[in-house]
Amino acid sequence: MAEDKKVRIYDPHDRSQYEDERAYWRAQPPSFKLAVLEELRSSAHKLGNNGAPDGDVPRLRRVFRISNLK
Fold this sequence. Notes:
Elements: H1 19-27, H2 30-48
């Protein structure tokens, strides 16, 4: 049975419109939620890295200073 796809336009100030979305996510198993979260994280990571592969990710340099206090 194929799921019907719908497009909805929400008013960001009317939180009651989002109840169907909340019900959908409450009904999903934790493994599915984690898979979607990982997909979103991976997509955001690639966008922030201009699409470079994961091995080519620029890292922040570690910087620290040891100070002697008097």
